């Protein structure tokens, strides 16, 4: 069976950025985009651990991501898309606030840019598949 063609462009969430060296290129779009929200999560990462080795790994990952990506902003279009995503999640009886809100803001960035969302945690995005394409890798 032939593999499906790779998407020309897609937004990768924080989980994909973290595991990027473990994911085959064939599982990802030709051109990778990230959200400014992902960059914020990566910037917080080194400060979220007390382990010096892990802090160094997270700092390295942040610096590599900063060098590789020009992040898509969370702008007015993303904010409106977030409202649609929030409503869809709540309508399905799922939580949309707290730590989950960050994931949904990343999804909103993808929706606003009309890009598929690539994630290692596709369960985090259940209930919004009718709004955007979510691809688990």
Summarize the structure in words.
By secondary structure, this protein is α/β, with parallel strands linked by helices. The chain has helices at 14-18, 36-44, 52-68, 76-91, 100-113, and strands spanning 9-12, 31-33, 117-119, 134-136. It contains five helices and four strands; from the N terminus they run βαβααααββ. Strands 2-1-3-4 form a four-stranded parallel beta sheet. Strand 1 (9-12), helix 1 and strand 2 form a beta-alpha-beta unit. The longest helix has 17 residues, at 52-68. The chain is globular.
Low-pLDDT segments: none
Major sheet: arrangement of strands: 2-1-3-4
H/E topology pattern: EHEHHHHEE
Count of DSSP helices?
A: 5
Cα(first) to Cα(last) distance is 19 Å
Percentage of residues in DSSP E strands: 5-15%
Largest sheet: 4 strands, parallel
**Mean pLDDT score:** 91
Category from helices, strands and their pairing: alpha/beta
Secondary structure: helix percent: 40-55%
The best one-word shape is: globular
Number of E strands: 4
Supply Rg: 15 Å
